[in-house]
Design goal:
single chain, alpha+beta, 6-stranded mixed sheet, 11 helices, flat
């Protein structure tokens, strides 16, 4: 009886030890295999491997979202430098945006451990981790390439004599600079001591909105439509609202640029109804008569029961297309 009891205890002990041995060390003590000094890590749990990984990745993104103190220091320092240099800013909004980032930001070098399944809880576990050194090198490379393009567009804009084209170049620089901002944010979260080396880049990024605003003051537009029919009036209003959306001024007279809108429509009648096949051509010209921007679009035929209804649908379609694409590039 004693031997049997001793045997059962031994079996129980071995089984328990084996069960404990099956639990990966990164579940019990993540810091042991992935120390904070070298890794950013997050442990996720879920009813499937995918859900466990998603949970871990979500926590990784929260790490980047919430820890922005170092970047704020870098931004504040850049602002002080600019004030000393007597540069003028119209708003602090650009600084606020630099310290913001969403969970959808791009993270480099995210890897996952092999998943672990716990029968008792019926849950999977997975550890997401980022090697700080590897990720920092990739971010630094991306930031360098982006800022090189940003500075190239800014240099082009400074030499360009056509204000509208200069603004377009700076708009491209602005788009690229926003991506660079997010990368700088992430990189300085990974390596806080790198905040210092990105101060000049942040200084440049903060300047772009004011550079655009300064040039836009001299960019005004008048609008002329070749069509006089009242049914096309909404197109005129749409183009005017797009100008306002992008911060341009609409002027009836003494404008720097003229927007010429030409809409051609081919009418077709079938047993199924009345159809219109429209096309739109938009040309922006300077006062010297040179074109600086063109936009053209040919549409598939648009139909309805009557020609009037077909034209109503046509105008709506053209408006939607202009709102999505005109000046958007």
């Amino acid at each position: 009886m004693k031997r049997t009891t001793l045997f059962l205890c031994l079996v129980t002990f071995i089984a328990g030890a084996a069960f404990c041995a099956d639990i990966p060390s990164w579940v019990k003590n993540p810091e042991k295999d992935f120390p904070d000094s070298a890794y950013i890590k997050a442990l996720g749990e879920g009813s499937s491997v995918k859900k466990a990984q998603d949970s871990a990745l979500s926590d990784i993104s929260l790490f980047f979202d919430t820890k922005i103190d170092y970047l704020k220091v870098a931004v504040d320092s850049a602002r002080e430098i600019m004030v000393d240099d007597k540069s003028v800013f119209t708003s602090d909004e650009s600084y606020k945006k630099i310290t913001q980032i969403t969970s959808s930001s791009e993270f480099f070098c995210v890897k996952f451990t092999e998943s672990y399944y716990d029968k008792k809880s019926d849950k999977f576990s997975a550890l997401a981790y980022i090697n700080k050194k590897e990720a920092s090198q990739i971010y630094a490379s991306r930031i360098s390439a982006l800022m090189e393009s940003v500075n190239a567009y800014r240099a082009f804009a400074q030499k360009e004599k056509e204000p509208f084209i200069a603004v377009q170049a700076l708009q491209k620089a602005k788009v690229l600079s926003k991506l660079a901002e997010s990368y700088i944010h992430n990189e300085t979260i990974i390596i806080p001591s790198d905040s210092e080396k990105y101060q000049n880049d942040l200084k440049t990024i903060a300047l772009i909105p004011s550079e655009i605003a300064a040039i836009k003051k001299g960019v005004t537009f008048s609008i002329k439509m070749n069509q006089k029919e009242r049914k096309f009036d909404p197109i005129f209003s749409t183009v005017a609202s797009i100008l306002e959306k992008y911060g341009y001024a609409y002027s009836v007279s003494n404008s720097a640029y003229k927007i010429l809108i030409d809409i051609s429509c081919i009418e077709e009648s079938y047993d199924a109804g009345e159809f219109v096949r429209p096309s739109v051509d938009v040309l922006i010209m300077n006062n010297a008569g040179s074109g600086v921007y063109t936009y053209s679009k040919a549409f598939q035929r648009i139909g309805s029961k009557s020609m009037e209804q077909a034209y109503t649908r046509t105008v709506t379609k053209i408006k939607q297309d202009l709102e999505e694409n005109f000046l958007a590039e």
